[in-house]
Structure formats: structure tokens, C-alpha cells
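Hello Y.,

Per our agreement to keep a running log of every chain we model this quarter, I'm adding this entry. I've kept the format consistent with earlier entries: sequence first, then predicted structure.
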Amino acid sequence: MNAVEFERVSKSYAVYETPAGRLMELATLGGASRHRDFHALTDVTFSVPRGEVFCIIGENGSGKSTALQLIAGIFPPSAGEVRVNGRVAALLELGSGFNPEFTGRENVYMNGAILGFSKRELDRRYRSIEAFAEIGNFIDEPVRTYSSGMVVRLAFSVAIHVDPEILIVDEALAVGDAWFRQRCMRRINEMRDGGVTIVFVSHSVSDVRAIGDRALWLEHGRARAIGDAGTVIDEYLAAVAGSDSPESKASGTDVQSRVKQAIAPATAIAPATGIPNIDHRSGTGGAEILGIAVLDEFGDPLHLMIPQSRILVRISMRAVRDLGSPDIGVRLRNHLGLDFAATSAVREGRAPGPMRAGEAVTADFHFEIPELYPGAFSFSPWVGDGSLVCDAIDNALTVQMARGEGPVYGYIQVPCRVEVDHSHAAPEVGERIA
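Predicted structure for the entry above:
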């Protein structure tokens, strides 16, 4: 049995030019029509098997959010049939399902009750919901006092803790800080691995390419294409490549950055001493990361990456025990929390060599930054000994990528030079080309 099925589904809305027109139509019991129909969806058919990540793409006004609202049961279709089999948790518009006058705590219990959870069950889950949302004392303040990012934090935390069989995610995750977005996407990936069906809407085709199994492309409310996510994205990008739409600035493929590296004792140059963020830390404890810094070519802290610029990623570490084959590395992640580039001292031919307990070393990674799609990119450092990971920190530092001169299709804009030759005469109609 499929988790979601749409069978020839259409959805239309009555649009009135003026409030008086609505009143006139009501007064005549519909005898005098004063509206026009807006068709948000027209004759759309698709199915989503259990455990699949199904993505819906398309330009603004194509019907993506309407499709999600139909799945969530917010309103019925105008025609056709929508079948949903499983417990649904929806993360749609900011604050949807929250009463702004209730506190965050009250909204957690209210949403849980609507989904069929008893107070005892919610009591067991509440601490985990509160911890994931990380909104502090605001949990006991009215939701109307929350920022948009705080609303998303709480809404997402509730959605993932009610054991959904089907998770619906709209563009809400575009709001909020980079750390939380990465944590959300990592949790979505965990839920996908656990067999949860995910229906995901995003304008960013890099998001879709990264997590989607299949995709539906909607255009003016009609299904333009459906199938493998990568194939549908390629068709979609080909169609919008020449347009000025925001979607033509989306992204999605891997890149290997060129890197030069220097290893020096921590006393030779100023070591990195701070770790701005720790999403998750793991390792055997044989060594520890002391700090990470991202600097520009002049040695100043970097807050914005510029295409075609040079940056320095400095990682300082200390051996807790004697290390026979130490290595220092860094992974670059996009806003989905997915690794798209990585390197290490050993890989670059600059192994630190054996280290005694208490000895410290600093590694400088010199990157030449290509033109990446504009988004938040994080740096995750690690240190190891042979095949063992001694210390690894997820998303220790995040830097925003500046927008380049033009749109980036995929993760990276590959340098390209085009030559057009008009010197060849075109063949006559009907003439064969040798």
C-alpha cells in the first residue's frame, strides 16, 4: 500500500475582485456569480511508496504548497481523490497549527493531542522536544512573541517527535540559522533511513538532488514530469535555464576543492583556540581538536566567502596519547549537512608524523574557492590515528557564500569559455550533411 496517492486531483479557489462581490454572491445564494476560479492544481496523479523521499519542484504559483496542504488534510480536493495511509506530521507555513496566544509548551501538548497522543505520552517526549528546539525560557511565552526562526525550531521539533509515518516539509526550513537547518536536515536523513515517508517541497534543486528519490515537477498546476529526482531536475533546469526566475539560481553537484597545506608545530604560528559550534562530537579520545578558524588571505577572520578567492582553514590539535600515524582533516558541508568536499594532511602528502602525548600541532589548509551556489557552508574538523578517529566535530564553523555575477546551476560554476563560429555556411534545405 502506498503512503500517498493522488488520483486525477484538482483544486480550485474562488477569487473575488472586491468584498462586495462576495457579499452579492452570498446574498443571491450563488445565483449571481461574482468570482472567477483559480485552478491551483489540475488533474494531477502520482503515488508515493512507503519509505520514499518524494520531492515536488516548480516555480512560485505552480501548486507545490497546495499539494502538501491536500496531503496534510487541511482542505479537500475540488475533484479527484487523495489517499493518505499513515500518521502525518506537517511542517508547512510558519506557525501553522500553533495558537499564537498559547505558550510554546501549551502548543506542544495541543498539537500532540490532535495527533492522538495522551498527556502521559507527551510528558515522556516533552524534554526531548524542548531540547531539540533550543528556545530556552521562551517555551513558556506566547508564540506571538517568537521570532520566525523560533517558531520553525519548535514546529520542527514537534513534527519529528510524534513518530510520523509521513513527514511533510515545505519551505519553512529556509528560515532560521544555518546550524539549525543542518541539524534539521541531518534528522530528516535519519528519519529517511528509518523508513519514514517524506514529501518535501523546495525551490532549491540542490536540496532535492541531495535527499530525493523521485520528484514531481509542477507547472501552472499541472504535472510536467515525474520520475527519478536527478532526471526530473535536469529537465526542469533545462527549461528554466534561460529564464530570470529565482529557480534558475538553484544548485546541485559535487566539487573537489584544490588545496595546499602546511603543517607546523603549534608554537610556530598562532594556533586556533576557539570552536564556535559543536553540533556533535565523537572519537576515541586519543587526541583532541583545540580550535578551528577560517581566515582570509590576509589572516583576518572570514565572514563571507567570495568566489575565486583564497581562504585559510586553520586547525590546531593536541595528542592525548602517543600517536603513531596521526592525521588532521576537514570536511566541507552544505546547508543540508551533507559532505561535498574533504581533505586531510595525509591525503595532501603532509602527514604530521608520530606525536608524543601532550604535543600540539597546527595544520593550515589553503583553499582556492570556486564559485559555489550562494548558501551556508560549514567546516567539520577531525583528527585521527591510522584508521581510528580520535576527535571529530560536526559543523564547527559556518561561513556564508557570496552570490557571484550570475546564477549557479548545481553546487559549482565550472569555468568555461565559449566560442561561436559563423564562418560555416548552413546546408540548403533537403541537402545532406557529409
